[in-house]
C-alpha cells in the first residue's frame, strides 16, 4: 500500500482498505499525510476476523474533521492535468466500542450528526444515507461492542451475592438475572446502557449498517439483551453479518426468542451468523418446546456455532444449519500464537461432542433436500476419541449427489484421552479420511488437518497429490519430527510427518500453492527434511512458518536455499505471474513471524532476498533479536519491495504505541511518550484524555 501510494505522487484521491488484515492504522495515516487530495476513505472490515482497522469513536471524529477540511482543497503536488471538481469528503468505517465511556461518546456523536432524533428508528427511505461529522459524510458500516454490562450484584443488608446464581430459565413474565428491586442502581445502570446502545443501533441501522459484533459483556443482562435485539430487528434492514456471544444470548427462553425474532426480521439481507460459546447452552428440554428454541433464516450463507453440544438443541439446529454453504462447529483457537490451531493449551468442557451428535450431523449432511454445505469446519472439537470424526468422515465420503466439498478443516482434534495417551481407532480414522478426501478430490481447494493423529495425517499427505485442485494445505499445530519427545531412532524412521510432507510436495502431480506450518515446533533439521519437497514443488509460492520459536539463525540457512530457488526468470511481479501461468513455483511469500531469528539469520536471509526479486513478502515481525545491523541488511536487500520486513513496528514493540513505526527516534520523544501506549493512544489514561488523535494528522 505504501509503495502504491508513493507511485501516486500525492495525487491519490480514493483509498479502500476493506478486509485488509495486514494493514495497520499507522500505514493508513502515512498514506493520508502523503496525499493531501485524498478525501474518500473506506475501511470496511468485510469478512476478515483479523481486521485491525476498526476505529474508536474519538478517532472517527478526528478523521472526519481532517477529511472535511480537505473538501474543495487543491492538490499540493504539481500536475499538468486540469484540476477535477472538488469531491465531497466521505468516510466509510468500522467502529469498535469497549466500555460505557466510549458508548456514550459514540451515542453523542451520532445524535448530533443525525439531527438529534434517536428515540425511534427512522424509516430507511427517509433517513439520509450518511451522517455529517466535521464537514465529511460518515457511514459506519460495522459496529463492534463489548464490556458494557458489568456482572449484576445483589446487595442485601450489606451482603453481596452474584446475580449469575439466578441464571436459570425465566418464569412466565419474569427474566433470568433480573430480579433487582425497583430503584436498584445496577438495574438502572444496565437499563440506561441498553437504551443508549439501542439508540446507536436505531441511528446506524437505517443508514446502511452491515455488520454487528456483540462481544463479551454486550448482551450479558437478559432484560437489556431484549431491548437491544428488538432494536436490531426493527432498524437493521441492511444487516449482512451478526456475531453474538452464545453464553449470553442463548441463556434464557426470552433472549432466545428475541434473538430468533431479530434473525427473522433481518432474513432478507442476513448472510453470515456466528455464535461463540454456544457450548454454554443451559441444560433442559426447553429448546423443543413451543417458543423455547429459535429458527435460522434459510438465506444464511455462513453459519458458525461454537460447539453447540446440547443434544436437545443440536438436532433442530443442525437440520437448519446445513442449508448454509459454510458450516462451522469449531471452537476458536486457544494457546500458542495468534494463528495457532493447536488445541492442547485450550480449556476443556463438558458435555462432549458425542457419537450421537456425529450421527445427527451425518444425517443432515447426507440429506440432498437440505444440505448445501461446501465449506465444513470441525476444528478444535475437544474430542476424546476418533469415533466421532470417523462417523462424520464416512458420512462425507458417502454423501449423495455431485462432490461439492471445497474446504475441509479438522485441525486440533488430537483424539487423546485426558491422560494424554493415544486412543484406539486411529487406523479407522485414517481410512475414513482417505475415503472422504478421494470422494471430493475434484473440488477440494483447502485442507486443514493439523494436530490430527499421526496415522490420519499420513493418510492426508498420501492423498494430497491426488487432489487435483488443492491449493492450500494447513498442518499447523503438528509436530513434524519427534526428536524432542522420542528417541533419535524413532525420529529417523521413514514415517515421520516431515518426510511424508516432503514426499507429497515432490510428487509431480502436486499442485499446492500455499503451505501453512504455524506452531509446529520446527527446528533447522525439520526444515532440511521438508526442504527437498519445497524445492521440487512446481507451484508452491507461499509458506507460513510463524511461531516456530526454535528455527533461529541456523534454520535461516535452509530458508535462504528456499528463497534462492525462485530467483530465475523475468522481473518483479511479471515474473511471478509468468511462473504461475506456466505452472512454475518459486516463493513469493514467506512468513517467519516469531521464529527466534537474530541478526545472523537476518543477514543470511538478506543475501537470498537480494538474489531473488520474485519474493514480494518476507514477514519477520516479533523476532526481537534482530537488531539494527540485521534490519539494515534487509533494507538494503529489499530493492524497494515494501513487503520485505526491515523495521520494527508496533506489532514488534507494542509499547511504542501507534504513533511510530521506528524504534530509533526515542530521542525525539519526551519521557512520558516512551511509556506504554495502546492502539487507542492511551485514551483510557486520565492524564492523556486530551492527547490529540493521530487521525487528526497534526
Which terms summarize this structure?
698 residues; alpha/beta; 18-stranded mixed β-sheet; two-stranded antiparallel ribbon; 20 helices; 20 strands; 32% helix; 12% strand
Describe the structure.
The chain has 698 residues and is an alpha/beta fold. 32% of the residues lie in helices and 12% in strands. It has helices at 2-8, 25-34, 57-68, 100-113, 185-205, 222-235, 246-249, 253-265, 311-321, 355-365, 387-397, 426-439, 454-463, 488-491, 497-506, 524-536, 552-564, 572-581, 599-611, 628-638; strands at residues 14-16, 40-43, 90-98, 131-133, 136-146, 153-156, 159-162, 211-214, 241-245, 272-276, 302-305, 326-328, 375-377, 407-409, 446-448, 472-474, 514-516, 542-544, 589-591, 617-619. The two termini are 22 Å apart. One of its GO terms (cellular component) is cytosol.
